[in-house]
Design a protein that fits this description.
Elements lengths: L21 E6 L8 E6 L4 E4 L5 E4 L65 H7 L4 E8 L1 E2 L2 H4 L2 E3 L2 E6 L2 E6 L2 E3 L3 H4 L1 E2 L3 E4 L5 E3 L27 E11 L4 E11 L7 E12 L4 E5 L16 E5 L2 E7 L5 E7 L11 E3 L7 E3 L23 E9 L4 E8 L3 E7 L10 E5 L7 E5 L11 E7 L5 E7 L2
Parallel strand pairs: 6-13
Antiparallel strand pairs: 1-2, 2-3, 3-4, 5-29, 7-10, 8-9, 9-12, 10-11, 12-13, 14-15, 15-16, 16-17, 18-19, 19-20, 20-21, 21-22, 23-24, 24-25, 25-26, 27-28, 28-29
Keywords: Signal
Protein name: DUF4185 domain-containing protein
Pfam families: DUF4185
Length: about 450
Amino acid sequence: MYVSTLSLLLLTSLTGGWASPLEKRYFDFDNNGVADRCYQICELAIRCLLDDGTWTTIPSSQQLHSATSTGPLSFIDAAEQTQATSDISALLVQRTTGKSSSSTKKASTTSSHSSLPTGTLPSPSQFKADKGDKWTMQYVGDLKFTDTLQKEGLRGDNCRTSKIGDKVIWNCGDMMCKNDIDTCGFSYGPAFYGTDDVMVVNTTDIDYVQSNDFSKPWSGDKAPQAPWRSWGMYSSNVAPINSTHGVVYATQFWRNAPDGSTKARGNTVSSVTLGKNKPIATRQGPLLTGPDAVSLGLLAIMRADDYIYIYSGGGPSRVMVGRVPASDDVFDESNYEFLKADTNDTWIPGIPNADSMEVGATTADPSGQLGCDVWGSVVYNNYLQKYVMLCGLYLQFVNMHTADTPWGPWSAVYQIAGGGNITGSYGAMMHPEYSPGGSGKSWYFSIGPNYEFHMYKVTFDY
C-alpha cells in the first residue's frame, strides 16, 4: 500500500500521571476504517504495522510517559503551565543518499584469548534452523534488587551493564516501584553497582530511587520552561576510559507538559567515577551538542583500543557509528567523527544531525539495513572472535549482527528471538561481564516490558 498523504487519527489519549513508556496505539492512515497497529517507546518514533503487512515509521510530537508535577524533589517545575494541544503529522521515513568529504583513520580489532573456546556461526538461515541444537536460549528469571527496593517492587524501562576497574555498573531508564511514585520515588535514570550474580543488582540502603540519579542536568543548563515541567534523560551505557574513570552520554530533553509533548535540548557527556556506594556521573560543562544532533549512544557505546565507539539510531542503515579518542577528547564536539554511509572505513568529522543520511554503518543484510531500533548492546565476543551487536526491532524481535571491526561492515541479521514474551518488550541489553569464564560461549541478555526485567541465557555450540 503506497501512502501519498497520511491522515492521522489518534484513538487513544493519556489520562496524566506516569504511564508506561511502551504504548500500543491505533491510527487510521488511509481513512479506510481499518486501524493500523502502532507501538511507541517513550517519546521516540512510532512504529506502525499497516493493514498490508508492512511497517512504517512516523515521528512523534507526543510524549507517552511522564512523572507527575508533584513528584520527588529531583524534579524542576516551571513557574507557569500553559495548556496546549498538538497534532501529530505522519510522514513516511524516506531513504536518501548523502555526500560529504571524509578523513580516514584505522583502529585495530580486539585480540581474542587463545585459551578460550571458539566457534564460527553459519549463515543466518542455518542459524535459525540450528536453534535448540547448536545453540539455545533459556529464560533464567527476572532481575532482582536487594533490600527495600526489591520488597517494594522496583521496575522500569531498561538496564544496561558496563565495567570500570572491578566494578560492574548497572544504569537504567525511568524507574519507580510498582506504579506509584509515592512508594520509592521516581528516577529518570538511576545507576547502581552490580553483584557477583547477573540476576541481582545492589540497591542496599536505598529508600528512594532518585537518590541514585546518574546523568543529571548541569548547573548552567536552562531549566525547563512552561509548558514543560521537568527534565528527561536517555542515557547510554558506560564505557571505561581507564581503571578508575569512564564516560556516559545522555540525550537531555524537557518533558511532562500538559499536552504530553517534549522539547529536545541536546546531548550531554559526563565523566564517570566510582563512588563508595554508587557510580557518579559528573558533567564537565555545557551541552555537547544542540537539539538537532543524533542521540549519542542510545543504542550503545563501547571502548575498543584507543577509541570510544558510539552507536546511535538513524541514517540509511538504521544505525550510525561514531568514534572519539578515549581521553578528555570526549568533551569536545570537534574530536568526533562518524562513518560515512556505504563505506567501510571513511570517516566524516563532527557529530551529525539526527536526520542525516550521510553517515551510517554498512551491513550484508539484503535489505541494506540493520535489524535495530533504539536500544541495544555492542560487545566483543571471545567465542566468535567478533564484535556482536544485539538489538530489538519493532518490539517483536531480538536480532544480532557480527563484525570484524567495531564499525563493521556488519553481517546479515541473525534472529535470536521473536514473538512470545518478546512481543511488546524492548531494550535488549547484553551483560558480558557475567559470561561464564569470560568466554562468550554463553552470555546473558535482559529485556524489559516496563515491569520486571526478563533475563535470558544464550549458549553457542559451534
